[in-house]
Amino acid sequence: MKFGVENLACRRGEVTVLTGVTFEVAAGEALILRAPNGAGKTTLLRCLAGLTPPVSGKLGFSTEDVAYAAHADGLKAQLSVEENLQFWADIFGTRDITPAVETFDLESLLTRRAQDLSAGQKRRLSLSRLMLTGRAIWALDEPTVSLDTENVARFAAAITAHMAAGGSAILATHIDLGLPSARTLDLSPYRAILQDAPSDDPFLDEAFL
Amino acid sequence: MIALLRRDLRLAIRAGGGFGLGLAFFLILVVLVPFGVGPNSDILSRIAPGILWVGALLSCLLSLDRIFQLDYEDGTLDLLATAPLPLEAAATLKALSHWLTTGLPLTIAAPFLGVLLSMPSGATFWLVASLALGTPALSMLGTFGAALTVGLKRGGLLVSLLVLPLYMPTLIFGAEAVRRGAEGLPATTALLFLAAITAGCAALLPFASAAALRMNLR
């Protein structure tokens, strides 16, 4: 699904972090966000997911179409892998969890409790949730953290399949996933203020807004 | 929608889920009061309605900070906020599951514990009725308080301070209904007030809780 934003300003807490962000992503395309730590990748993704309303600017899509995957895995430690997946499937009105389980190779873990999983297995479970949402735009915040190379490839295959089916994605990541049609967007030009700079300094405002 | 309720109930009864915490506290309080006050059954039966209601209220308070905090910490709340389920519905279901794991067990246990406080048998009906009508309001007000403080570490104290004044009317009418019932006076007015408080909470607080959650997730 095609989506874009125009002249978007987002904030984190009370601080406006990004201004003037403009981009468009076509159906079947992925946009990779590159920026140093603290530059506003998470802020932008939370804004796209509808968690933070934009300060100004326009979202050219409905946040109802965005599936958001955050830093945190969002798993319940006391529930089994299957119960965790089934919960999200019920919430998103998806009947079948099998495709998600197969894509991320979770069959052997289905009955295990989430608290007994390794960090990489938790991440896989958390990412497999995306497939249950049935949503066209995936907004992913550092999705490959704690995944090994084999599972990064598995994840890249899942995104590729998602894009081949007409979906699109926006990812904040530091590694190369080898996605077929991916563009890179550097967020540095859109930063509202330099980190650690006093925001009430008129010279800094002039220079960096 | 039912999935969230089912998950919360399942989490509550699994290890570390906190089911029974409120009930155990209630039990301890009611067992200890006769030791503190002395075995004079006249005094006990006079203070029984108040003790039972205060006990129920405090046990409700005990588990409030768990309503959203755990979901907030592991990231589930962010994901729920982006899910098709409206946050208003999520807040209602959270309040309902809090009531099912706290208010309902208290309501069922209260008549048996009333015996320990030598509560007059005529008051039992009024006790159960007032708790059944009043404790849902406690859960809903508590959910609102929990939603307001969801981002705060150790928000438990703040929730208590925020919620306690809101609990006052429920406590006053609840205890009053039981006291009047125990003395054989008509208690319907107090019960009607309790029902009105609960109905008002059910109608308004899900929206307030959802708004508070949205503010805190920003």
Automatic annotation (TrEMBL), chain A:
Q: Which InterPro entries match?
A: AAA+_ATPase (IPR003593), ABC_transporter-like_ATP-bd (IPR003439), ABC_transporter-like_CS (IPR017871), ABC_transptr_haem_export_CcmA (IPR005895), P-loop_NTPase (IPR027417)
Q: Cross-referenced Pfam families, in alphabetical order?
A: ABC_tran
- What superkingdom heads the lineage? Bacteria
Q: Where is the ABC transporter domain?
A: 3-209
Q: Name one GO biological process term.
A: cytochrome complex assembly
The record's annotation in SUPFAM superfamilies points to: P-loop containing nucleoside triphosphate hydrolases
Q: Give a GO molecular function annotation for the protein.
A: ATP hydrolysis activity
**What is this protein called in UniProt?**
Heme exporter protein A
UniProtKB/TrEMBL annotation, chain B:
> What does this protein's UniProt record list under function?
Required for the export of heme to the periplasm for the biogenesis of c-type cytochromes.
Q: What is the lineage of its organism?
A: Bacteria, Pseudomonadati, Pseudomonadota, Alphaproteobacteria, Rhodobacterales
Query: Protein name, please?
Result: Heme exporter protein B
Record GO cellular component, one term: plasma membrane
Pfam families xref list: CcmB (PF03379)
Where in or outside the cell it occurs: the entry states:
Cell inner membrane
Q: Report the membrane topology from the UniProt record.
A: Multi-pass membrane protein
Biological processes per GO annotation = cytochrome c biosynthetic process; cytochrome complex assembly
Principal subcellular localization: membrane
What family is reported?
Answer: Belongs to the CcmB/CycW/HelB family.
Q: Which organism is it from?
A: Litoreibacter meonggei
Mind telling me which PANTHER family this protein's record contains?
CYTOCHROME C BIOGENESIS B-RELATED, HEME EXPORTER PROTEIN B
Q: Which InterPro entries is this protein grouped with?
A: Cyt_c_biogenesis_CcmB (IPR003544), Cyt_c_CcmB_bac (IPR026031)
Q: What would be an example GO MF term here?
A: heme transmembrane transporter activity
